[in-house]
């Protein structure tokens, strides 16, 4: 019926199934991740099953309440006929541990676009959603987000093989020590430097420059979209809820009418139904917002990779420049011409030429330095090229993932809207029937 | 043949045509907007009165024109009547009337038939919302209401035969007629008597009229509530529309950054745009169909209260004179008392008949306005749904 206008058969298949919920479509994305299959996912099922409140003393010895999340892992194996699947291994993690894992991944794999965590605090809320971290709806959405994070890492060809990641999933007690032992914290400073430094790179790879710009623009546009969407949701809530007043008034009015009474009364009920329906509709839309948020946070990860490239490129340019300078010095020393100002040159002018011996020892030291410099440049250049190669490979992978995920998100959003319209048609048709009987 | 007439009884300093001249292309009556057309036809379809098939009046109110004189500025409306009634010399009339003329007509009708329910006129001047008297929207709303008023009168089995009604529809110049009849002072006298009688109080109101009074009081509050809720919905819809207008373009902005994603993003942008258009139409429907209908019945409720008061006064006057007669106070004329007794009978009977007629009309009018709203809403969701399907 509605499908006649759609394009390819693929689209029809998706649009036709208008009963698919947004959770299901998010699962579709996850299923794709699993299907593509890394070695890890081929042998292990991962999910974040539950969330629980805990209280305990924090680092400054104060009572605090926090939420822990249950990570379940289960070996992937065929279940025997009539048998039950094996019980999963379980451990509890809190949000800060996820953060620690992610920081470790960021510094260990600076050329990879590291999947983002769900937001720490609720942002882009529309009025009804609580911004409270302990609100059950927020906790539930965070649980889904954390599971998504783990699955994204687990489906990454490189990250899935990381030992620390594996231990995060399997080793509750000893994990923190294992992470710290890697000494990754030393690299944290370097990462911070690359993110915040304002250095000028002469020849960055143009692809990365373009990518950073795209990433910044995408960040801005998704932020705006989320902001406006929240306002739209707020207003739509208002429209639906005011119709609830019809319910009350029609009911009261029906009490004084004879022929009109029944029609008014039942129409009033439909108005109540209409007003109540917005709660579920907007809750479902939050899933869509979460999908957009994930890619909003992804832009930070992309930016981080671009900045790392810039840093490496800058360092390369610095050592290359340094080498060029030294070579020039050698030339001047060898030919006796002074093109470059140097203290030695000045003092020799003032205090007389240096002896042949002195010159030769200086030349030797310089040669040594130049040789070392050339080594450094070679190494740095190789590091840079390797970074560009591996990073761009991952960026291509990321781009494909992004396009697919967002396309699916937009489709599921359209499906949600269609479902909302169906409900609307239902309610108002029913109300019309009631008024007809008046 | 039609003649455009400008009433020139005072020096006219300027004439400005403010609203599109809605000429009657085929000579048939054509209300201005499609929605009021729908309402009009619904009303005619569902009329159950005898002889309703033979609608013998076709009246239109249109073509408001501003008249500026040395003293004042006012609007004149064109009133075109086509009728098959034998009381009318011709079958077609065209006159120009101003709001005051309508007020006069209604006043005379109420005066002649104090316990008939005479359809209300649009209000004199709406201060709230700071609507200017010569604002196009205000004039159009008023024009539609005046049109409805005359048509309601023309459908009334008693009022449509009123001499005042005939004069209103046919006389080229109304001012001389307005000066005739019971003057201001005699009308004052009647009001004073009525107040005096009501202060005295009723002996006993017949049960059925007490029931009616209670209904009228409740109906009045309820219809006001429905009106308020509807206005609130319009307000919320407008705010929703404002946000939608920001939402769509953001998707377009995003589409400009993308390659593969550009198409689906543009699709959503187009959809949101569609949604905006449809929401605008929803607001229009509410403002032009449902709100006027509800508002009319808010005014009707006040009319009903006035009718009930007048009925009470008629009864009170009779009771006062009757008591005076019984106690042989002064020289109370027995014949006068008989006359008043009959007056009470007539008042009660006409009210009862007109009451059931009014109730039917109310049901019909409000039902059709509410149904029109539900249809618009279904239409809205169907169109948005279709746009969503096409977008991806």
UniProtKB/TrEMBL annotation, chain A:
<keyword id="KW-0175">Coiled coil</keyword>
<keyword id="KW-0813">Transport</keyword>
<dbReference type="InterPro" id="IPR034783">
    <property type="entry name" value="SNX4"/>
</dbReference>
<feature type="domain" description="PX">
    <location>
        <begin position="47"/>
        <end position="175"/>
    </location>
</feature>
<dbReference type="InterPro" id="IPR036871">
    <property type="entry name" value="PX_dom_sf"/>
</dbReference>
<dbReference type="InterPro" id="IPR034902">
    <property type="entry name" value="PX_SNX4"/>
</dbReference>
<dbReference type="Pfam" id="PF00787">
    <property type="entry name" value="PX"/>
</dbReference>
<keyword id="KW-0653">Protein transport</keyword>
<protein>
    <submittedName>
        <fullName>Sorting nexin-4-like</fullName>
    </submittedName>
</protein>
<comment type="similarity">
    <text>Belongs to the sorting nexin family.</text>
</comment>
<dbReference type="GO" id="GO:0031901">
    <property type="term" value="C:early endosome membrane"/>
</dbReference>
<dbReference type="GO" id="GO:2000786">
    <property type="term" value="P:positive regulation of autophagosome assembly"/>
</dbReference>
<dbReference type="GO" id="GO:0032266">
    <property type="term" value="F:phosphatidylinositol-3-phosphate binding"/>
</dbReference>
<dbReference type="GO" id="GO:0015031">
    <property type="term" value="P:protein transport"/>
</dbReference>
<dbReference type="GO" id="GO:0031201">
    <property type="term" value="C:SNARE complex"/>
</dbReference>
<dbReference type="InterPro" id="IPR027267">
    <property type="entry name" value="AH/BAR_dom_sf"/>
</dbReference>
<feature type="coiled-coil region">
    <location>
        <begin position="356"/>
        <end position="383"/>
    </location>
</feature>
<dbReference type="InterPro" id="IPR001683">
    <property type="entry name" value="PX_dom"/>
</dbReference>
<dbReference type="GO" id="GO:0005886">
    <property type="term" value="C:plasma membrane"/>
</dbReference>
<dbReference type="InterPro" id="IPR037430">
    <property type="entry name" value="SNX4_BAR"/>
</dbReference>
TrEMBL record, chain B:
<dbReference type="GO" id="GO:0034727">
    <property type="term" value="P:piecemeal microautophagy of the nucleus"/>
</dbReference>
<keyword id="KW-0653">Protein transport</keyword>
<keyword id="KW-0813">Transport</keyword>
<dbReference type="InterPro" id="IPR036871">
    <property type="entry name" value="PX_dom_sf"/>
</dbReference>
<comment type="similarity">
    <text>Belongs to the sorting nexin family.</text>
</comment>
<dbReference type="InterPro" id="IPR015404">
    <property type="entry name" value="Vps5_C"/>
</dbReference>
<feature type="domain" description="PX">
    <location>
        <begin position="55"/>
        <end position="176"/>
    </location>
</feature>
<dbReference type="GO" id="GO:0032456">
    <property type="term" value="P:endocytic recycling"/>
</dbReference>
<dbReference type="InterPro" id="IPR001683">
    <property type="entry name" value="PX_dom"/>
</dbReference>
<dbReference type="GO" id="GO:0000422">
    <property type="term" value="P:autophagy of mitochondrion"/>
</dbReference>
<dbReference type="GO" id="GO:0061709">
    <property type="term" value="P:reticulophagy"/>
</dbReference>
<dbReference type="GO" id="GO:0015031">
    <property type="term" value="P:protein transport"/>
</dbReference>
<dbReference type="Pfam" id="PF00787">
    <property type="entry name" value="PX"/>
</dbReference>
<protein>
    <submittedName>
        <fullName>Sorting nexin 7</fullName>
    </submittedName>
</protein>
<dbReference type="GO" id="GO:0000407">
    <property type="term" value="C:phagophore assembly site"/>
</dbReference>
<dbReference type="GO" id="GO:0005769">
    <property type="term" value="C:early endosome"/>
</dbReference>
<dbReference type="GO" id="GO:0035091">
    <property type="term" value="F:phosphatidylinositol binding"/>
</dbReference>
<dbReference type="Pfam" id="PF09325">
    <property type="entry name" value="Vps5"/>
</dbReference>
<dbReference type="InterPro" id="IPR027267">
    <property type="entry name" value="AH/BAR_dom_sf"/>
</dbReference>
């Amino acid at each position: 019926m509605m499908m006649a206008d759609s394009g390819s058969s693929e689209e029809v298949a998706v649009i036709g199934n208008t009963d698919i919920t947004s959770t299901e479509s998010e699962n579709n994305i996850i299923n794709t991740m699993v299907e593509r299959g890394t070695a890890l996912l081929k042998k292990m099922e991962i999910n974040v099953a539950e969330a629980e409140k805990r209280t305990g003393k924090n680092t400054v010895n104060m009572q605090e309440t926090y939420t822990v999340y249950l990570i379940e892992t289960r070996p992937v194996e065929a279940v025997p006929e009539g048998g039950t699947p094996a019980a999963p291994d379980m451990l509890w993690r809190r949000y800060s541990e996820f953060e620690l894992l992610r920081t470790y991944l960021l510094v260990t794999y600076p050329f990879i676009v590291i999947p983002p965590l769900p937001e720490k605090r609720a942002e882009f809320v529309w009025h009804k959603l609580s911004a409270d971290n302990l609100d059950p709806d927020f906790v539930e959405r965070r649980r889904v987000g954390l599971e998504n994070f783990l699955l994204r890492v687990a489906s990454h060809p490189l990250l899935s093989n990381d030992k620390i990641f594996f231990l995060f999933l399997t080793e509750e007690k000893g994990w923190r020590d294992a992470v710290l032992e890697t000494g990754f914290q030393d690299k944290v400073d370097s990462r911070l430097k690359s993110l915040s430094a304002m250095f000028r790179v002469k020849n960055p790879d143009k692809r990365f420059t373009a990518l950073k710009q795209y990433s910044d623009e995408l960040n801005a546009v998704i932020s705006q979209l989320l902001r406006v969407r929240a306002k739209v949701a707020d207003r739509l809530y208002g429209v639906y809820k005011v119709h609830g007043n019809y319910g009350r008034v029609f009911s009261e009015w029906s009490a004084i009418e004879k022929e009109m009474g029944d029609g008014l009364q039942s129409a009033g009920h439909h108005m109540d139904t209409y007003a109540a329906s917005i709660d579920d509709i907007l809750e479902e839309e939050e899933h869509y917002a979460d999908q957009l948020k994930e890619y909003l946070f992804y832009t930070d990860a992309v930016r981080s990779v671009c900045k790392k490239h810039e840093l490496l490129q800058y360092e390369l340019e610095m050592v290359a420049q340094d080498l060029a300078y030294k070579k020039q010095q050698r030339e001047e020393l060898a030919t006796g011409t002074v093109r470059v100002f140097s203290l030695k040159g000045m003092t020799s002018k003032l205090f007389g030429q240096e002896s042949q011996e002195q010159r030769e020892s200086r030349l030797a030291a310089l040669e040594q330095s130049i040789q070392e410099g050339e080594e450094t440049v070679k190494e740095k250049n190789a590091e840079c090229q390797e970074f560009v190669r591996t990073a761009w490979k991952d960026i291509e992978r990321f781009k494909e993932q992004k396009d697919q995920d967002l396309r699916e998100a937009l489709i599921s959003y359209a499906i949600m809207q269609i479902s909302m319209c169906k409900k609307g048609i239902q309610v108002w048709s029913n109300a019309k029937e009631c008024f007809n009987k008046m | 043949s039609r003649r455009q007439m400008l009433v020139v009884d005072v020096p006219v300093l300027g004439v400005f045509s403010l609203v599109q001249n809605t000429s009657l292309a085929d000579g048939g009556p054509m209300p201005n907007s499609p929605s009021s057309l729908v309402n009009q036809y619904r009303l005619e379809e569902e009329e159950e009165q005898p002889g309703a098939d033979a609608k013998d009046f076709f009246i239109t109110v249109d073509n408001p024109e501003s008249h500026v004189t040395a003293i004042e500025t006012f609007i004149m409306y064109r009133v075109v009547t086509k009728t098959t009634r034998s009381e009318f010399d011709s079958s077609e009339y065209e006159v120009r009337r101003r709001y005051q003329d309508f007020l006069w007509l209604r006043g005379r009708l109420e005066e002649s038939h104090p316990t008939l329910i005479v359809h209300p006129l649009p209000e004199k001047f709406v201060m709230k919302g700071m609507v200017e008297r010569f604002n196009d929207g205000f004039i159009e709303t008023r024009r539609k209401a005046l049109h409805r008023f005359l048509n309601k009168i023309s459908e009334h089995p008693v009022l449509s035969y009123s001499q005042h009604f005939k004069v209103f529809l046919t006389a080229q110049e109304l001012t001389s007629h307005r000066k005739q009849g019971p003057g201001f002072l005699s009308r004052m006298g009647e009001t004073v008597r009525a107040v005096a009688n009501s202060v005295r109080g009723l002996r006993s109101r017949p049960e059925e009229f007490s029931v009616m009074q209670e209904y009228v009081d409740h109906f009045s509050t309820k219809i006001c509530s429905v009106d308020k809720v509807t206005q609130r919905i319009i307000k919320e819809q407008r705010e929703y529309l404002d946000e939608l207008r920001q939402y769509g373009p953001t998707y377009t902005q995003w589409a400009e950054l993308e390659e593969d994603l550009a198409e689906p993003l543009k699709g959503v942008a187009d959809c949101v745009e569609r949604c905006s258009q449809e929401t605008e139409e929803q607001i229009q429907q509410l403002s032009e169909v449902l709100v006027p209908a509800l508002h009319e019945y808010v005014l009707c409720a006040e009319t009903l209260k006035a009718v009930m008061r007048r009925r009470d006064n008629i009864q009170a006057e009779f009771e006062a004179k009757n008591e005076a007669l019984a106690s042989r106070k002064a020289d109370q004329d027995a014949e006068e008392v008989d006359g008043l007794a009959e007056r009470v009978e007539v008042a009660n009977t006409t009210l009862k008949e007109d009451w059931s007629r009014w109730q039917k009309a109310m049901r019909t009018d409000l039902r059709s306005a509410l149904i029109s709203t539900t249809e618009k809403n279904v239409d809205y969701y169907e169109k948005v749904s279709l746009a969503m399907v096409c977008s991806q």
